[in-house]
Design brief:
about 80% helix, about 90 residues, 3 helices, about 0% strand
Length: about 90
Amino acid sequence: MDSAASLPSSDHDRDELERRTGEEADAQANAFRRFFVTRLAVIIGIAWLLSWPVHLLPHTVVWTLLAIAALVIGLTSPGRNRSTSLHTPSKPQR
């Protein structure tokens, strides 16, 4: 039998404790890093999704104003009056 394995050794316990503490610290650091990076990615993604229409806004406003102008011109322009075109003499065909 190995008597060194059965006897408690303060150096052995200290090394084991340091190794376990180091592993737990690494695991906690990795968990925090993963948490932080995940939250940062979510925030960046949301900011990107909310900001992309801002770049399209000037084009949308221009096209909307053009559509409104065309609608206003179309609705306010005087219509063709058929009665005036009926009383005009027709041109002879050649």
